[in-house]
Structure formats: structure tokens, C-alpha cells
Amino acid sequence: MLPVIQSHRVPFIAAIVLSFVSLVFQVLVPNMLANDITNTFVKHVAALHTDVIFVVIVGVLAGVTGIVSRQYLFYTAYNVEADLRSLIYQHLTWLSFSFYDRVQSGQLISRANSDIRSVQMYSIFAPLIIVQCLIGVVAFCFMLSINWALALIAMIVMPILYFVGIKMRRVMFPISWITQARLAEVATVVDENVNGVRVVKSFAQEEAEIDRLADAAEGVAWAYIKDANIRAIWSPWVQNLPQLGLALVLLCGGWMVLHGDLQYPEILAFSLYLLMLQAPFMMLGQLVMMGQRAKASAGRIFDLLDVRGAIDFNHLNFTYDNGAEILKDFDAHIKPGETVALVGRTGSGKSTVARLMTRFYDVTGGDIEIDGHDIRDVTLTSLRENVGVVLDEPFLFSISIRDNIAYGRPDASIEEIQAAARAANADEFIVRLPEGYDTVIGERGYTLSGGQRQRIAIARTLLLNPPILILDDATSAIDVHVESGIYKALRELLTQRTTIVIAHRISTIALASRVLLIDEGRVLADGTHEDLLANVPLYSEILAQATNEGSS
Description:
This protein has helices at residues 2-6, 9-42, 48-94, 97-102, 105-146, 148-154, 158-195, 197-202, 206-258, 264-282, 284-305, 350-357, 380-386, 401-405, 414-423, 427-430, 450-464, 480-494, 506-509, 529-535, 537-551, and strands at 311-319, 325-334, 339-344, 365-370, 373-374, 387-390, 468-472, 498-502, 514-519, 522-527. The chain is of the alpha/beta class. It folds into two domains: 2-305, ABC transporter transmembrane region fold, CATH 1.20.1560; 311-551, Rossmann fold, CATH 3.40.50.300. Strand 9 and strand 10 (522-527) form a beta hairpin.
């Protein structure tokens, strides 16, 4: 969601700033009124009409800035809505037919309409209410300047209000999710009846379909009634608790006025500030309700768009065309954000797993799932945009280094390209070249060393920022010193994505939180590096063999 809003950051920031300025002008009014009353009626040192003119000017400025801020805010909200619709449609066009075989069209229509509208409504009102809460802080500071004891008395109810808001948020989210899901069920029934009307009429099933729609509508009604009941229980608490604070202020403030500890203009200004402070809290209940509905809707939207990175290899079998059987009942499961190393002898099937993940080949048995979706159910474009691979034999084009790194993202800025190069520990040698990033390398990059080519290949993949990253022995051509620099930078990046590391060196395995030992196409052992080293002799043998080959 943040990248979508960020694309409209200028009008969004302008809206927030102008809204804040508008409310600052409003906060000045009570203090001005108190000073006006004191100067005119108590001290007799100023003319009333002059003070009134200043108050009017401040009011006009508050109104103008408020109007402009709302225009910018609505502009941002509706453009965010349009962008989300476009993203969903673009994503849906990439999905294959098998996805549509499993997912009802009504569910998709609901997510592209009512769910997006809930997010859009929240994106309009939430910033306004948050700004008003900030203004509440400013108003409270003015209250402290008038009488700190009375200000603290006014705040007595705020801890109770906080805990009520937390409880309200917890009970609202589940019913908000159910409401959006049941609206999608109604959309599904309507869509099927409109498109299948000839079948319905041919079999005289009108009454059955009406009953089916009625059942779906009753489900929506139940969810709305449940939602209304929750609002009825919790909204009065949120809206009326601030009134208790006002009553305490009138009681204690009146006592102070009677005893000469507080002046009439001060109690007037204090009461106006307290009313300003109440406004955001009275809207807090509405914000919580809208927020939970928007959260549920956003979750349903990004169920379609987001790749969390959970990978399931479900009893894979794979045989190359030449008859070589590589994987035999390969079964493994990787959690989102986890870094897992695949270790095994040469020919055990490690690199084959990487090729199957990107569908360079298709499995001959079993399936691979990402976030519960069979990778054969999505288009190759969508899959490969979300799974980045750095191969053990990097290939570079005879174009500039900048263009090689930006090969997957031609529109990337030079700052983004340099950041990817630094993450791959390539920036240091690139800037020393005659033309820097504009240096044109020879055919297949052979004017560079193997380690330099590999680092550019790593930068090329990191620039895509895929949620799933596969490093297929990616540092095999890099010396240990340079490799440690790359891994130092990679550690931070790997925490943000699911990573499969096909490893031979212990330094590479150290990147992983878990190791899968593969032998003869199966997962022989699963655990941490230390556990396997202590308990699995084959693992120690493979590492010793790899170390000897590296030193030789």
C-alpha cells in the first residue's frame, strides 16, 4: 500500500501539511478570544472591533487552508483507488486459466470494487483524524499553559479511552473480514445468474436461484447486524467518555473561578480547547471501525497482489529428457522470510531445484507451491518477476555495466543501480573503471574477472527486489575476502525475503538459518548447520570434500 501512496506523495504531503496549518489557525482562536476579553472588558486597553477583525482573518485562513487540503486529499485518495484497480487488473491478466478455475469471479469483482472503496475511504479520513489528534496535543499544551492542574484533570479519562479503543479494534476486525467476504459471495451469485441466465431459465431454476441469493443476502445482513451491535456497544464509550472529562473541568474550574484561582476568560479558553480536544476522540470510534474494515479489505486485495514467500516442495519427482532421474520424492517446506541452504554432492539435484522454481523445467511428479498457489497456475512472467535467480555461471551482455545491472528494470534510476551494486559489493571496482557505470564491457563480460561478473549478476537480481531469491552457488568464482563483503551486505537484504542458497562453502551456509541435506534426489536431513555437523556424518563428509576441492 505504501508504494502506491508514495507515487502520489506530493499532493498527499501537501494535504497533510495544509490540514495541519488549518487546525493550527483554529487552535489560535480560543487563546485570542481569551486575550480579547481580558484586554477589552477587564483591562480596557484595546478596542473590541480590532480584535474581532483579527479573529475573522484567522478564521478565513483556517477555512481556505482546510478547503485546499481536502481537495488535495480527495485527489490522492481517488488516484490511489485507481492505481489499486489497475494493479489488480494487471495482476489478473498475468494469471493462467487454472487460477480462474479455482477462484470465483464474484470474489475478484468484490475485491476490485467494495474492498478497494473501503481502503480508499480510510485513506481519506484517517489522515484528517490523525492530524486532528496532533492538534489535540497542541491544544493540550495551551491548556497546560493556562492551568496545569486543570489540564491533568481533563486527561483523567484518556487512559480508559485508550483501552476501550484497543478492545474495540480487536472485536471489529473479524466481523469486518466476514462482511467483505460475504459481500463477495453475493457478487458471485449475481454474476453467475446473469451469465448463466439461459441455463437457469432452461431448467426452471429461478426459485432455487432466488433462494440461493436470499441465503447469501441473509449472510450479509447477519454480518452487518453483528457489526452494528458492536458499534452500539463500543461507540457510546468512545464518544461519551470525553464528556466526563468536560464535566470534571467545569466542576473543578468553576470552583477555581469562585476562589479566584482562575479568571473568567481563562475558563472560557480552557473549555474551548477541551472541546477541540474532544473532537478527535469522538471520531476515534469511527476511525477504528473504518480502519478495521480497511484492514480486512486491504488483506483481501493484497492476497491477490502480495507474495509472502512461503514455498512448499510437495513430493517432487523430476527426470530430464535424457532419462536421468534427478529428484525422487523431494519434500521440503520453507517459511516466508526464511533463508535455507541446500547442500549435497555434485549431481544430487540442488541446481535442479532452482531450475524448477522458475519453471525452466516442469516437475514430472508432485508440485511446487508459493503461498499455497501451484506455480503452474500463474504465468511465467508473474512467476519470474517474483523469483530472482543468480546462476553459478553469470552471463553479461556487451553493453554498459549500468545497462547490465538495469537489464530487468530499464527504468531504474542511477541511484537505485548504485544501491544494488553496493549491496553486491560491486560499486568499489565499478567506480575505478575508466567510464564508471557507463563502461562498456566486452562480449559476455570477459573483460572483467569472474568475481566481478558474478557481483554484477548479483546486483542485477537485487535491483529487481524479488520477494524470493535463489543464489545458485553465486559466489563460486569470488575469492573469500570479496565474498565476505558481499555476504555482509546480503545479510540485511535477506531478512526481507525468502532465500534459497545452493551452497558448497561453509561461509555461504552461514547465511542460512536452516540447512537441507540432499542426497540422491531426496532430503536426507533438515536442521541447523551445527546440528547436522554434529549428528550427520555425510554432511561433514560433503563439507570436507568441498573444502579440499576449494583449496586445491
